[in-house]
């Protein structure tokens, strides 16, 4: 009897599902997308209704053949990829690849929010057809991004610097970071003062702050100088302090909503220090399956979602846990539901939650690594807390008057902790003494405090994701890749967790803002996301959308090729003269920063570095074409004995002799992966480059050991054959042994 074939996109997912199904099912993985637009060609036939030209990746051809053979032998093929646009597109590509004139494929599409046995069995009982609207929305997004990137990036290479890239969403993200940096640089700090008072009553000390003068509430900048604060203190000398007013108010603190992708990324960054990319990588592992004793199962629901919906079964299970573990006083009359504000959210999807309520974090401590445990604890706690009654907090404010000055003290007491028992900020009781109106209090001391206004902080992972979501730019699956891309392209650097724009990002942002305003316009980009959502909902056709965007974009691009001069963009005139040839020096901007360069190039290649303050400095190792400071090493040149430097070149860092130009010896800078060579047992696997600049991974004991791989090893070993596992993209891994499936 023929088996049924289930195809998923992840090998980890396949491994988990295999545990749930009997021998009548064969589970295989596509390892992500099997085909995509070609790397070295536009791959879009603009004249033929933007028809995409999809190609199978070279390293996936054998896998396609294996899937075809398995499909041909199967009674039914189930496409079980993720339930979003990307997952739907992968299933559609699979169907196209596995169907030919000879084969009439019997197939069904199944979807599930969590990878558990019950969810998989329920999905098999309730299959559906492929959703072509979701496929079209994914194709439209992919083609849009290709048109912008493939057309605009070469323009930047020619007019600004080689190696740059532009993107429909990434360029908007860079603009946000650049504009925030300009706000910070323009910001002028202002001095202001506050006056604190420490009082005593009934043996209890409490703090307060000057709140009003002459019944006028003070704003932050009301007291600007030390002289003003000293005048106030002098006027308060010998004053009597009495209670002018007592206000008590009870407030409810509602539980937080369950996590969406963006709120999880923000909270994981704020509470755990995780980057957006790191959060998604860990969440993917929790979703796809973790081995708990002898059981392999998914611990959380699908982590790419903007829905706040929760399954009724989960709400009931959560209520049962709350009643048993915390008691009836924590349980609302009915389950709490949260309405998603995002227009594009699909309520059929769920928020991020644990798949099993009773699988509390402390029970899984021995099965998860430290980061997995912390993220799971965050998700589990938030999901349980969202079904608990609000916290009750008693807030008290005391107004203490002396002459025409009023100081305010505030205190709070948690009467009922509610969701704070499980999740939330630690709110400490701040209890004020029980006082009556007109009762005197003793002043212990007055404390003037000088402060200065500060600019808005630079963006970090959490604040950038929040801003993108507020503007309606990008979707749950795109936030982490956007941040990774603009770092890889050297537009920004991460310093102390904050995003710092590099010099080149200012040049590119200004160029795009002036000459391609729609590409970096916040509203236009958000509107485009809404239109893609309409395609996904079947309310809009995708080809007219592409045409409407492309025609004016391409016409403008051709026009700008003729109008814009590279020198006007990246050259800034100076009064500096080249000491080597006497010609004028200009400030140039490259991907790696600003530097002084002689206008006599290429006859004169003199360059000088520029500090962040704009001050020129000589490089002790001679100028480099892009003004980058090399790093000194302890290695010696095997040709002349001089010390070797680490320089930054077009294709990355490399070793170069410090005696240049007398000695021109260079060699590749191997990057250690930290993985021990499985062949010789003592060498390390390092990243190397071929002559054509293609990266491969090989043992550093070459030529004594000739072990090598084309993909980066993860450090883990295959459970089936013991070979090294290698990176397969999208946070996935596969066995390096081609014979191992």
TrEMBL record:
Releases the supercoiling and torsional tension of DNA, which is introduced during the DNA replication and transcription, by transiently cleaving and rejoining one strand of the DNA duplex. Introduces a single-strand break via transesterification at a target site in duplex DNA. The scissile phosphodiester is attacked by the catalytic tyrosine of the enzyme, resulting in the formation of a DNA-(5'-phosphotyrosyl)-enzyme intermediate and the expulsion of a 3'-OH DNA strand. The free DNA strand then undergoes passage around the unbroken strand, thus removing DNA supercoils. Keywords: DNA-binding, Isomerase, Magnesium, Metal-binding, Topoisomerase, Zinc, Zinc-finger. Monomer. Residues 131-557 form the Topo IA-type catalytic domain. Its EC number is 5.6.2.1. SMART domains: TOP1Ac (SM00437), TOP1Bc (SM00436), TOPRIM (SM00493). InterPro entries: Topo_IA, Topo_IA_2, Topo_IA_AS, Topo_IA_cen, Topo_IA_cen_sub1, Topo_IA_cen_sub2, Topo_IA_cen_sub3, Topo_IA_core_domain. NCBIfam families: topA_bact (TIGR01051). The record marks 33, 141-142, 145, 150, 157, 304, 489 as: Interaction with DNA. The keyword Nucleus does not apply. PROSITE patterns: TOPO_IA_1, TOPO_IA_2, TOPRIM. Residues 165-170 are annotated as: Interaction with DNA. It catalyses: ATP-independent breakage of single-stranded DNA, followed by passage and rejoining. It is an enzyme of class 5 (isomerase). One of its GO terms (cellular component) is chromosome. Residues 3-115 form the Toprim domain. It holds the Pfam family Topoisom_bac. The active site is at residue 302. Belongs to the type IA topoisomerase family. This is DNA topoisomerase 1.
């Amino acid at each position: 009897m023929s088996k049924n074939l289930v195809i998923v996109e992840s090998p980890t997912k396949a491994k988990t599902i295999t545990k749930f199904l009997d021998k009548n099912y064969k589970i295989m993985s596509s390892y992500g997308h099997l085909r995509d637009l070609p790397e070295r060609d536009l791959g879009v036939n603009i004249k033929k209704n933007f028809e995409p030209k999809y190609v199978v990746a070279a390293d996936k051809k054998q896998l396609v053949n294996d899937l075809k053979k398995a499909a041909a032998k199967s009674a039914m093929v189930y496409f079980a990829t993720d339930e979003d646009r990307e997952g739907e597109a992968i299933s559609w590509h699979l169907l196209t690849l596995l169907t030919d004139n000879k084969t009439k494929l019997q197939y069904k599409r199944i979807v599930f929010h969590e990878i558990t046995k019950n969810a998989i069995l329920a999905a098999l009982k309730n299959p559906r057809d492929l959703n072509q609207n979701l496929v079209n929305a994914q194709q439209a997004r992919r083609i849009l991004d290709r048109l912008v990137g493939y057309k605009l990036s070469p323009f930047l290479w020619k007019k600004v610097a080689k190696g740059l890239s532009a993107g429909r969403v990434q360029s908007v993200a860079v603009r946000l970071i650049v504009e925030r940096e300009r706000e910070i640089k323009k910001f002028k700090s202002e001095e202001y003062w506050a006056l604190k008072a420490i009082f005593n009553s009934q043996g209890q000390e409490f703090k307060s702050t000057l709140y009003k003068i002459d019944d006028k509430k003070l704003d932050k900048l009301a007291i600007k100088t030390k002289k003003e604060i000293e005048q106030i203190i002098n006027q308060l000398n010998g004053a009597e302090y009495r209670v002018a007013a007592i206000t008590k108010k009870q407030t409810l603190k509602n539980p937080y909503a369950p996590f969406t992708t963006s709120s999880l990324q923000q909270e994981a960054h704020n509470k755990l220090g995780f980057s957006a990319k790191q959060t998604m990588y860990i969440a993917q592992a929790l979703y796809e399956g973790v081995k708990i004793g002898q059981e392999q199962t998914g611990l959380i629901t699908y982590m790419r979602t903007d829905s706040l919906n929760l399954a009724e079964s989960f709400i009931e299970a959560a209520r049962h846990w709350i009643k048993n573990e915390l008691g009836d006083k924590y349980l609302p009359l009915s389950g709490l539901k949260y309405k998603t504000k995002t227009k594009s959210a699909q309520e059929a999807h769920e928020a991020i939650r644990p798949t099993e309520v009773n699988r509390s974090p402390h029970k899984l401590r021995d099965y998860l690594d430290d980061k997995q445990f912390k993220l799971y604890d965050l998700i589990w706690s938030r999901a349980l807390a969202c079904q608990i009654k609000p916290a009750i907090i008693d807030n008290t404010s005391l107004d203490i008057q002396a002459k025409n000055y009023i100081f305010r003290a505030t205190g709070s007491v948690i009467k009922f902790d509610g969701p704070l028992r499980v999740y939330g900020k630690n709110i400490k009781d701040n209890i004020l003494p029980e006082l009556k109106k007109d009762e005197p209090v003793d002043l212990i001391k007055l404390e003037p405090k000088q402060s200065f206004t500060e600019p808005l902080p630079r963006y970090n992972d959490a604040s950038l994701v929040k801003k993108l979501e507020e503007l309606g730019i990008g979707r749950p699956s795109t936030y982490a890749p956007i941040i990774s891309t603009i770092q890889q392209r050297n537009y920004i650097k991460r310093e102390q967790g904050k995003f710092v724009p590099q010099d080149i990002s200012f040049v590119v942002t200004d160029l795009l803002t002036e000459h391609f305003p729609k590409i970096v316009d916040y509203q236009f980009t958000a509107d485009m996301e809404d239109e893609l959502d309409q395609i996904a909902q079947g309310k809009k056709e995708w080809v007219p959308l592409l045409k409407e965007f492309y025609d004016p974009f391409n016409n403008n691009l051709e026009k700008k090729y003729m109008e814009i001069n590279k020198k006007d963009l990246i050259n800034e005139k100076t009064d500096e003269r080249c000491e080597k040839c006497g010609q004028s020096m200009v400030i140039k901007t490259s991907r790696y920063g600003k530097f002084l360069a002689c206008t006599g190039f290429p006859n004169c290649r003199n360059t000088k570095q520029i500090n962040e303050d704009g001050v020129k400095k000589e490089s002790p190792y001679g100028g480099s074409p892009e003004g980058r400071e090399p790093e000194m090493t302890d290695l010696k040149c095997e040709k002349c004995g001089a010390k070797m430097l680490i320089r930054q070149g077009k294709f990355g860092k490399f070793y170069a002799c410090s005696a240049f130009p007398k000695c021109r010896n260079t060699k590749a800078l191997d990057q250690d992966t930290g993985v021990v060579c499985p062949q010789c047992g003592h060498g390390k696997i390092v990243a190397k480059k071929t002559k054509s600049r293609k990266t491969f991974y090989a043992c550093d004991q070459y030529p004594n050991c000739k072990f090598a791989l084309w993909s980066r090893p993860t450090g883990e070993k295959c459970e089936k054959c013991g070979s090294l596992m290698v990176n397969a993209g999208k946070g996935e891994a596969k066995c390096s042994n081609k014979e191992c499936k």
